[in-house]
Amino acid sequence: MLKIPGYEGGPLVQGSAYLANPLFWPVHLGTCLRGEDAQRAAFGADWDAAMELYRVLSAEHEWPVFSVPLFSGHTIYVVYRNFVGEWGVEGPRSFRTGTQ
After folding, report:
1. Which residue in 31, 47, 54, 73 has a CA-CA distance of 20 to 30 Å to 24?
2. In angstroms, how far is the first alpha carbon of the chain from the final one?
3. How far is residue 10's CA from residue 87's CA, in Å, rounded to a whole number?
């Protein structure tokens, strides 16, 4: 289990594998689209696959974490926090490598 300060109780999991999914960025950015019609237009025929990925990314039992190591020795973390009824993406947070 991943450990990040401030998220000690969250079920954090490494999310880097999701980046290989061609629907990741449309799903991530599609949360900004207002209304189901706009989202359907953006995803087209892949609407069902996009919704399945969205359900996985917003599952309460696993919070995907994306980390970006920096040359300075810090790491930036982006967390999909999935509290019941309060889903969101938090980040970036930066911590010195070795202190998380």
Report:
1. 73
2. 12
3. 13
Amino acid identity of residue 78, one-letter, is V
pLDDT value at 92 more than 70: no
Q: How far apart are CA 65 and CA 81, in angstroms?
A: 9
Q: How far apart are CA 72 and CA 14, in angstroms?
A: 22
Dist. CA 81–CA 60, nearest whole Å? 8
> What is the residue-wise DSSP string for 52-98?
HHHHHHT-TT-EEEEEEE-TTSEEEEEEEEEETTEEEEEEEEEEETT
Average pLDDT of the segment spanning 11-26: 90
| pLDDT at residue number 99 | 45
